[in-house]
Amino acid sequence: MGGFTTSIVIDRPVEEVAAFLSDLLNDPRWRREWVGARPASDQGSGVGTRTLLIGQFLGRRTEVVYEVSRSEAARLTEWETVSGPLPLTFRREFEPAERGGATLVTFTYEAHPNAVLRLLEPFVVSLGRRQLDGDVPSLRAILEA
């Protein structure tokens, strides 16, 4: 099981950053691989809520359904893949940063590849990290505007 963790500081209050990043419907606004999103369940925003993300990966259209598996208001949200090409768990954690009024966000991704994808795991993990690192400036620009 491969994965990675990365952190950023956003100059906005924890509650505001957590509200934005705990709703996957916002991801197409700052993640380049997602071109659309829609609710995939009738539930609210807590554990069990499902979201369908529509994306482009290596030139192919992908549809992935994620389900909130853990949620602690303004502290963390965690999702697991329900359907899609790569089983994974990812988490976004929020805490006050050292400079007042800012938020430290920690992103953690853990891939759970099947036997075939396990061969590509180093590539997939590296690609995921590069994509996230490339998208963070967009996230910061949206939230700090």
Detailed description of the structure:
The chain is α+β, with helices and mostly antiparallel strands and 145 residues long. It has one domain (3-144): 2-Layer Sandwich (Alpha-D-Glucose-1,6-Bisphosphate, Chain A, domain 4), CATH 3.30.530. The chain has 4 helices and 7 strands, in the order E-H-H-E-E-E-E-E-E-H-H. It has helices at residues 14-21, 27-30, 115-118, 121-144; strands at residues 3-10, 34-39, 50-57, 60-72, 76-83, 88-96, 103-111. A 7-stranded antiparallel sheet has the order 1-7-6-5-4-3-2.
Strand and helix map with partners:
Elements: E1 3-10, H1 14-21, H2 27-30, E2 34-39, E3 50-57, E4 60-72, E5 76-83, E6 88-96, E7 103-111, H3 115-118, H4 121-144
Q: How many angstroms does the end-to-end distance come to?
A: 37 Å
Shape: globular
Order of helices and strands: EHHEEEEEEHH
- Derived structural class: alpha+beta
Q: Tell me the helix content.
A: 25-40%
Could you tell me the mean pLDDT? 89
> CATH superfamily, please?
START domain
Pfam family, one: Polyketide_cyc2
Organism: Fodinibacter luteus
Protein name: Polyketide cyclase
InterPro entries: Polyketide_cyclase/dehydratase (IPR019587), START-like_dom_sf (IPR023393)
Summarize the structure.
The protein has helices spanning 14-21, 27-30, 115-118, 121-144, and strands at 3-10, 34-39, 50-57, 60-72, 76-83, 88-96, 103-111. It is of the alpha+beta class and 145 residues long.
